[in-house]
Amino acid sequence: MAWRGLIEEYRDHLPVSAQTPVVTLLEGNTPLLPAPRLSEMVGASVYLKIEGANPTGSFKDRGMTMAISKAAEDGAKVVVCASTGNTSAAAAAYAARAGMTCAVLIPDGAIALGKLAQALILGAKVLQIRGNFDQALDLVRALPNHAPITVVNSINPYRIEGQKTASFEIIEALGDAPDYHFTPVGNAGNITAFWKGYREYLAAGRSTKNPKMMGFQAAGAAPIVLNHVVEKPETIATAIRIGNPASWQGAIAARDESGGVIDSVTDDEILAAYRLLATHESVFCEPASAASVAGLLKVGVDPGSTVVCALTGNGLKDPDRAISQIEVPTAVDATMGEILKELGV
Ligand SMILES: *Cc1c(COP(=O)(O)O)cnc(C)c1O
Q: Exposure winner among 176, 191, 226, 245, fewest CB in 10 A?
């Protein structure tokens, strides 16, 4: 049967009822791609969960189909988030589908136009406030006290529920849970949700074990590793440039209950993994996504184990980063001889 979107597919595991209007773009069902060269490098069976294949290009769609469907059930007409990245793109898309207004509050100055382009073309009302990101988030959190508006930032509990379905898909594809699950950590909703999904499928008898949860922050934005808030987080991996994660406790629980680790990787390690994924496995992901593979290459795994690395977003979200990583093509004369010479054939 054709894929119906993750709410219909996993209805029994989600807090929805017959009264919930399902707002879907047929998210989920993303590829679990074997990674033969990475497997050889680390001596294990490595798979890549390609979350960039979701409708707006990141795993945020999984959470947003739930958040917007529940908002619709509550009669919401307006949703709001503070985001300069993938959350705003997903919120804009699902809100448009539901006929709702989507407001996006972004801080002054630091606008990544490439990512915001999605939210803008999808019709979001983007408000650039004269203030920083924390002020934008404070305003977003307080908005429901003043008007009938639903917040779809990471504090919205339904997002974790939608995001956990990626673990269900992994277990179905492998026939069991993997031994290790590597994932980037920003606000830590993603690692919290993956862990919830694994636990629920184990409890339902759909798997025989849980993986070790291996979360990786960027070295310049590693509050969980450092065990304190980072006031000015810095990393090229903008999707995980978070100094005070909303789901901090969820990440700690995932680590401790699974016997995993939360560690950090440098921007250089992230970029090396980002390039390796493209050249060795033909996957163009976001820099933040490559933190999972950078983590795998840093800490390694037991020989022969089964490993899943979550690749959270599509590389086309951040084309400037890709272009900064390669040699700009040089012009050649329009002659066959010149072209054959350049190609070395
Ligand atoms: C949101 C996001 C992350 C971080 O996920 P958290 O739930 O905030 O930890 C990582 N990569 C991409 C591409 C994202 O959009």
A: 226
Q: Return d(Cα 252, Cα 260) in angstroms, integer.
A: 10
Determine the Cα angle at 252 with ends 220 and 200, to 5°. 130
The answer to whether the CB of 182 falls within 8 A of the CB of 311 is no
Residues sharing a CB contact under 8 Å with residue 242, sequence separation 6 or more, in sequence order? 186, 187, 221, 223, 233
Residue 276 has pLDDT above 70, yes or no: yes
Q: What does the block give as tokens for 16?
A: 């929805």
Distance (Å) from CA 311 to ligand 1 centroid? 10
Any residues with Cβ below 6 Å from ligand 1, and which? 58, 60, 85-86, 184-190, 239-240, 286, 288-289, 312-313
* CA 332 / ligand 1 centre spacing (Å): 41
Distance, in Å, from the CA atom of 86 to the CA atom of 49, rounded to the nearest integer, reads: 17
- The pLDDT-based confidence of 84 (bands split at 50, 70, 90) is confident
Predicted confidence band of residue 320 (pLDDT cuts 50, 70, 90): confident
Q: What is the pTM of this model?
A: 0.96
